[in-house]
Write a structure and sequence with these properties.
Blueprint (H helix, E strand, L loop, with lengths): L31 E4 L3 E4 L8 E5 L5 E5 L11
Antiparallel strand pairs: 1-2, 3-4
Protein name: 3-dehydroquinate synthase
Keywords: Amino-acid biosynthesis, Aromatic amino acid biosynthesis
Pfam families: DHQS_2nd
Amino acid sequence: MRPDTPGWRGIHPDGVLLNQLAPEVDGLVALYVAAPGGRTRYLSKLASGAEVLVADAGGRTRTAMVGRAKIERRPL
């Protein structure tokens, strides 16, 4: 992905040497992501290899493949 291509992502500091980094929360797993063919997919149903749509700053879209999808359940 290029810097002008925002996308759905989650970041966790696994393997980072600094303990000060906190994970970034991306939202509820009941949310949707755009998929090719005018479809949507639940974030909770995505798996490695799934195709999603990403858009650049100019509104141009292209497909991208999910590399890793992981849901962590945390206590409230």
